[in-house]
Amino acid sequence: MTTPERLSLNQKTVNQWGLHDVVDGCARHGIESVGLWREPVAEVGLDASAKLVRDAGLRVSSLCRGGFLTAREERARTVALDDNRRAIDEAAVLGADCLVLVVGGLPDGSRDLDGARMAVTEALATLAPYAGERDVRLALEPLHPMYCADRAVISTLGQALDMAEPFPPEQVGVVVDTFHVWWDPEVWRQIERAGRRIASYQVCDWVLPLPADVLLARGYMGDGCIDFRPFTRAVEAAGYTGDIEVEIFNAGVWASPGDEVLATTIKRFEEYVL
């Protein structure tokens, strides 16, 4: 079986593996692109990680994650902005196609949703030029509304595009993640609107019943409710030609042998996504 050229393995899909195992696994299975996370990269070291991935001939489809920009208290905002500048610098060293931003939920004790969204907009005004100077593209990721309070006050692709619009597309784009946007009746119109702002296309399935920890509700493509081919056609019609990242958070997947996970991922990707 030939591995699809556009398939990218987000390393969270094999959370049981460290970075060296991920790179070796991609080589064994013919996967040419990888989505990295900052914490495993830090464990290996930034420069060492960049060399490891580069020597393996892998593309870096994304770096996860920056964001958590909703704080209103000055010191907390300064800390968040500094961390995001570091994340931008890391993405530049790794040669990542984009830095994914999970923008953050409501600050502790707050019910001011509009204020939290305004804080994200203000932070982007600071971070977008910094990213542009380093040839790094920020990618706003809308998350399903069930994560609005604690993870992302951006819940729809339309909201993400509204926030991105004041900035050049090469500085601020958006993520189309099927898990988070499949339910949205406006999603097809918003994908068309997004056009060249689509910085990342991520896939995994919505599996029922939802686990107690809804962060782990993602499954292999074909195990749940999402029809992937219309999404693939839509993002391609909008002009997206980049990697397609498989990003799965699932306790059962993480308990399985990594090579088994990669083999299943490739099979399901060909069967359901392309």
What's the topology here?
Blueprint: E1 7-10, H1 19-29, E2 33-37, H2 38-44, H3 46-55, E3 59-67, H4 74-94, E4 99-102, H5 113-133, E5 138-140, H6 157-164, E6 172-177, H7 178-181, H8 187-194, E7 198-203, E8 205-206, E9 218-219, H9 228-237, E10 244-246, H10 251-254, H11 258-273
Parallel strand pairs: 1-2, 1-10, 2-3, 3-4, 4-5, 5-6, 6-7, 7-10
Antiparallel strand pairs: 8-9
Which CATH class is shown?
Answer: Alpha Beta
Q: Helix and strand succession? A: EHEHHEHEHEHEHHEEEHEHH
Our count of helices gives 11
Here the CATH topology equals TIM Barrel
> What does the overall shape look like?
globular
Residue share in helix:
40-55%
- CATH-level-2 architecture: Alpha-Beta Barrel
What's the rounded overall pLDDT mean? 97
| Total of domains | 1
The CATH homologous superfamily is termed: Divalent-metal-dependent TIM barrel enzymes
Q: What does this molecule look like?
A:
This protein has helices spanning 19-29, 38-44, 46-55, 74-94, 113-133, 157-164, 178-181, 187-194, 228-237, 251-254, 258-273; strands at 7-10, 33-37, 59-67, 99-102, 138-140, 172-177, 198-203, 205-206, 218-219, 244-246. The two termini are 15 Å apart. It is globular and about 50 Å long. Helix 4 (74-94) links the parallel strand 3 (59-67) and strand 4 (99-102). It is built from eleven helices and ten strands. The chain is 44% helix and 16% strand. The mean pLDDT is 97. It has a single domain, classed as Divalent-metal-dependent TIM barrel enzymes (TIM Barrel, Alpha-Beta Barrel). Helix 4 runs parallel beside helix 5 (113-133). It is an alpha/beta fold and 274 residues long. The strands form two sheets. It has an eight-stranded parallel beta barrel with strand order 1-2-3-4-5-6-7-10, surrounded by six helices. It has a two-stranded antiparallel ribbon with strand order 8-9.
